[in-house]
Structures are given as C-alpha cells and as structure tokens.
Amino acid sequence: MERRVLAYLFVSAFFMFVMLTMRPKQPPVEDPNAPDAVAQQDAEADESADVDNVVEDADPAADGDAKTADDAAPADRPREAKWFTIGSLAVDPEDPTLGDKALITLSNRGAGIERIELIERNPNGHFRYRRVDTRSGYLGYLAPSAPSEIDGCKINVVGPGTPADLAGLKVGDIIVANGTGVIVSPSDFQRWLEETTPGQTITLEVLRGTGENRETVTVEAKLTQHPLDLIRLAKSGGPDQVPGNISRLSCLLTLAKLNTTNLRVGQKELTKLPSLFDGLWNVTPIEDSENPGFEFRFPISASEAEQVAKGSGGLEIVRRYTVPAAGSGYDIDLQTEIINKSDVEQEIAYRLEGPNGLTLEGWWYSAKISPNWTGGAGARDVVYNTASEFHRLMGLPKIVKQVRQRTEDGVDKDEDVNETLFASSGDPKTNQLRYIGIDGQYFTASYIPLEGESQTDVFSRGSSMLLADLKVLNPHQTQAANVSFYVDSTPRKIAPGESLTDTLRLFAGPKRPEMLEERGLSRLIEYGLFGAVSKLLSGFLHFIYMILGNYGLAIILLTVCVRGAMFPLSRKAAQNAQKMQELAPEFKKIAEKYKDDMEKRLKAQQDLQKKHGFNPLSGCLPMFVQLPIFIGLYRSLSCDIELRQAAFIPGIQWCSNLAAPDMFYNWSPWMIEYFAGRGTGWFGPYFNILPLVVMVLFMAQQKMFMPPPTDEQQEITQKVMFFMTFIMGIFFFKVAAGLCIYFITSSLWGMAERILVKKTIKPASGGGSLALEGVGGDDGLETSGPLKSAPKQKNRPRNPPKKK
C-alpha cells in the first residue's frame, strides 16, 4: 500500500510541476540603458501608437542601397501615394445576398493589397463574416493620415457603400471634430471610434477643399458592425494584435534576376534597382464591367537597369488585379507582365510574395491542429502542394524556431533564415505547384494556378517568410506572429519588344468545404485522426440545424443522439462498474488473506470473477468504441466555420459565437496579465461561465457515483482524481462554447444514465449475503454484498465463539 500511496503522491506532484512550468512567463526585464532594450522600447512604443486604418509605408527596401520612389524618379512615375478599391458594400434591398463578397483596397505604393474585407451578407442583411474581436461601430476603412498643415485626420480612401460613403465623406476631407470634441490626429479619431457601437449615428465636422476654397462641412454617419478584415496591415490595431509583427502590404513583387545579377541571400531587392516594394506605381482602372480591377505599371529606364547588370535595357513591370465574374466573389486574379523595351534579349525572373496579415481572431484560444506528427500549428501557417510532396503544412512554431536558430544579432549574412518549401531538382514534379497560401482556423488566402492546371515551369522555388521582430515579440505570443511566403519564377529570356505573362488566382475567403473542394484545397480543413467520423457527425449536425434553426440546440440534440446510440455499451460499462464496486470488499479480503502469496491471490481473484461473471476488461470496450466518436465530434465542432458567429441565444451578446469561449465578462482591464493576458495569461481576457458548469458537473458525477473510501488508499485516490478534475477545468476555460455545450449535455446524460442503470440492476435475494466457499484454496471467505453468488445453506453450522 505504501508504494501505491507514493505513486499517487508522485502523480499529484507531477501535475503541480506541469502547472508551474507551463504557466505563462513574462520576458526578462532588460537594462533600459542597453541598446537592445532601448530599441525594444521604441518598437513597443511605435506598435502602441499604430491604430486601425493608419497609413504607413509598406516596408522600405532593407538593403540600404535600393532607391526609394522619390530618389531620382523618372517623370513618368507618380509622386503621391493613392488608394483604390474594388467592390462595394451597397446592398440590394430585395436580396442582400446578391451583393459583392469582398471589398479590396489597393495601394500604388508597392502595387500591393492593403486590405481585404469580407462583406458577404446573410438574407437579413447582416455580414455573414463580421469581425468578432471588436464590438465598436464601423465607419469604413479610411487609410487616414495626419495632414501636414493642420491638426486632424485626413481621409485617403472611401469604400463604395460604406457608412463613410453614404454619409458623403470624400477623399481629401480632414476630420477636425466629432460633435463632442476636437480631433487632433488619426490616433485620436480611432480611439474615439472604439467607444462607439453599431447602429449609432455620429456627427463629424470636416474641412473640404484647399486654400481659399476650403470649407467646413458637417456630416452624419450611421455606423454598422465591422466586416471581417481578412487581410490587413499587421500594425492596424485591434485587440488581437501583438507587438513585434511587421506591417507589409500583401502580394508585393520585385525582380529576382536581371540578366547576370541575382538576388543574394538576405536581400529583399536587387541592389541599385528602384524599389518596387516602396516605389509609387502608375495606376489605371480596367474598364471591364464583368471583371473589374486596376492595372499598375512601373517603368525601369535603361540607365537604371544598366546599374544593376551591364548590358541591360529598359523594362516595364505591369501588374493587374481583377475580380473574375466567373469566380466565387472571393477570387482575385493576379497577372504579372514584364515587357522588354530594349533592343537586346534579356533574362528575367521575379519574386512574388504571398498575402500576410491574415486575421488573428481568437488565436489565444484556437483549437487549430497540424497534420504533421511533429510540430504544432499556429494562428496562421504556410501550406503548399506540389506534385512530388502533395499537401504540406509548415507550422508557424517551426518557422519561428528555425529563424531564431539561424539568426544571430538579428541578421545572418551567410545563411537564408527563411525555410525552403520546394525547389527545382532533377524531378520536374518538385516545382509543379498546385497551391501555396496562408492557412488560418476558419479562413485562408492561397495562390492557385488558373483552371486547376499545375505550374510546372513557372516557379523554381518557394520559401516561407517570417514577418516579425523576434526581439520584440513576446515568447508566449509567437503563435500570433505574422508570416508569409514568396515564390521565385524560373528565369526566362524575353526577346526585344516581347513580354512574358503569368497569372495566378488568389482565393481569400472562408474555409467552407464546398468552396475548398472546387479549388482543390479540401486538405486545408484538418479533422485529425478520425476524419471520417468528424465529417459524418458534421453533416448530421447541419441536418439537425436545418430543422431547428439554432446550432446550440443542434449540438444538444446531436449529443443526445450520439449518447443514445451508444447507450447499450454505456449501460454495460455502468453495470460492470457497479459490479466492480460490489466486489471491491471481496477483492480486499482476498488481498489481505494472500498478501504473501501472489499466485494464490491471483487464482482467488480469477475464481471470484468467474463465479460472478465479471470481466474487468469488458468495461474497457465501450471506452475504445466511444473514443473515435468523442474525438471525431470534438474535431467536427472545432473545424466547422458555420459555428462561428452562431449564437446560442439569438439577440444576446453572451455566447454569441459558438466557435469561441462564451465571453461572459471582459475582465482584462483590471485582472492581472498572468491570468487575463492574450497568450501570456492562463485564462484569457474574458471570464467564461460554461467551462465552470462543465467542471461542476464533472465533480458532481465524481461525488455521486464514487463510493465512500474504505481505506486510506482509496481516500488518496479520490483526492487525486478530484485534483485532476480541477486541473481539467482550468484547461477547459478557453474551450469553445459549442464544445462546452456538448460536454454539459453529455455529462447530464451520463448522470441520468448511471442513475437509471443503477435502478435496473436487481438486488441480491436473501439479504445480499455473498458466500465464497472454496475460492482460492481450502479456506472459505464469508463476505457481504448485494450480489447473489451461492445458494443459501440451511442450518449451516457456525463456529462457536472462542472462550476468553
């Protein structure tokens, strides 16, 4: 017994050790006078100063010798940054679902994508995918900046159909007051907007025009809920953003090879080449009502190309963004054209970066898993598929780990810190790309070759790309690091006056199974080990929802159906447990009788089990049958995008997102970060009710069905089990509300089931005496219990009591 007591104490100590070692830790406090510490403080200050919709540069060339847009720019290049939008929030009053599904904001600084907002509507006119990490009102993405001559907030873009557009705000307007106070900066305006609510009507005072023609205009705007900004700048604010992520436009392009000059390891752009990342491109709209979009052009003169590689001639880089009419509304066609404007043949290759800044919603509670046996998944990971490797996921934790290992003092000049995903080799299948993208819990942004055709000779290499400063990024928030990728095209020769043209399709949208299946992206939904069970249960859940119209009730009914189907197995397991409890005293007596003879003890126990038809392994079978169902149901609820924004009780803010914790109360303003920090705290920023209900029910089951301890050993066992239940409740605190509803329903069913089974077991006749004669040897053991084991003998002689 002493050894068992020590074992239980060891288990308790182990769980205490896990609690202490896995608890979130803050990064070490550095000397504020040290250069690195000062840099970190400056970076954190810059991060906190950045707010949603604030304009900032895409990412200047890191080489230090690449030219910027204003550095000796030719006359045919613009000198002013501008923004352009594709799509509209305008709603058809008869059928809101017929409108656009995405509002895309482009910038001529770098010719990249700055923002993609998902604006698909439900039949009731609400956003199908709204931003769930904020509850303030939405005016629209304005890309505001600080005006040079006066205080205020300058508007640089107004999306069609947004509340700002409907209110009459225009590009160039300067917001100077909000009806209750003065606006002195974009940050000031953003902080005020965060205090508003959807449906609220706000009053703004703006300055319109310039010089003597400037006038003061008062406008009123009715705010709405935020649509989901699937792609945004990493420093664009929001409660789920973390310090250390680098802001960068998505889908940037530069040259990777110009004749004899190639990009070196660690370079972002070719030395002495005008910066395509930070340069200002010429923009013209594409006049096509079926496929609206914009064309960006960047000319490179012969003298500029000559500085990069001797004998090079003039070029023009052309990029086209269009939304195809035949697409889903979440598709964007990216066309790259390189025109040789010289009279000599030139060999060209380009580098195309992927999207970044994918939504971080819920990263601190995400249940995203990796298909790899080693390495986990982050809030956003890099996925790709080639003909030789098929589907692969490069998890964010692995990317961060490898960059950290390969980086010394921030830069390693001798080795590429990025991880190569695929590269050309002797086998042409190695660079036969089928797709590559950024994968989130419920959304993705992926490049796909048009018409499902693999790109055999277009791309020679692909690599992941970490967009985060690891010196600033909190080690406990690496799951939220910004990540992207790039692909290098195969060098190709372009004859004088000719051009090369490549096209990829960017799918930036929800991970709905039917959409992913059409694009060959179905592997992006990771169900885990029991995927077939998960898909079956998910389909059944949707069928129930079609009948009930509420996913909360559908989960309850699904749990009842699953537990009801397993009732025969559960009943047998409960009966087995009941027998085990009733035979426990007999096993104890056998152990005491033969404590010095292991062979006789085992023989006596086997005879006892055989006599009463008890098989200790029979109780394990139901558990093994239920395990795939339990895990499959867990994964189906974790992967189902339809649970996102699904309310348990419509019209109530609490538990309005079954894919997230119920978020009963936001305690982060006053609770210490150790408990309420995002990623740095045990419980997260919200106090949740449903996990506590789950833990209470688990403890109630333990109290109801566990017999009173008969000795010290059983008492220790029960205390350890109680402690483990408490620990499990802590880990359940950030579980999605839909899963908590499943556990609550399953626990209530289990309690009712055990009570019912206990009542159906027939009690032993004749007072429940259990005689075990001849069990394990010549001597008999007289025991008591509710089971009937042997016929009662009449006038059985009893041993007379010993005389004192």
From TrEMBL:
Comp. bias regions, Acidic residues: 43-62
Region (Disordered): 27-77, 765-804
Subcellular localization: Cell inner membrane; Cell membrane
Membrane topology reported for the UniProt record: Multi-pass membrane protein
Basic and acidic residues: bias regions: 64-77
Biased composition (Gly residues): 765-778
GO cellular component terms, A-Z: plasma membrane
Molecular function GO terms recorded: membrane insertase activity
Pfam families recorded: 60KD_IMP, PDZ_6, YidC_periplas
Transmembrane region(s): 6-22, 551-570, 681-700, 720-744
SUPFAM superfamilies: PDZ domain-like
GO biological process: protein insertion into membrane; protein transport
Keywords per UniProt: Cell membrane, Chaperone, Membrane, Protein transport, Transmembrane, Transmembrane helix, Transport
Record domain PDZ: where: 136-210
Compositional bias segments (type: Basic residues): 791-804
Family: Belongs to the OXA1/ALB3/YidC family. Type 1 subfamily.
Record's function text: Required for the insertion and/or proper folding and/or complex formation of integral membrane proteins into the membrane. Involved in integration of membrane proteins that insert both dependently and independently of the Sec translocase complex, as well as at least some lipoproteins. Aids folding of multispanning membrane proteins.
HAMAP family, alphabetized: YidC_type1
Subunit structure: Interacts with the Sec translocase complex via SecD. Specifically interacts with transmembrane segments of nascent integral membrane proteins during membrane integration.
Protein name as catalogued: Membrane protein insertase YidC
Origin species: Rosistilla ulvae
Designated gene of the protein: yidC
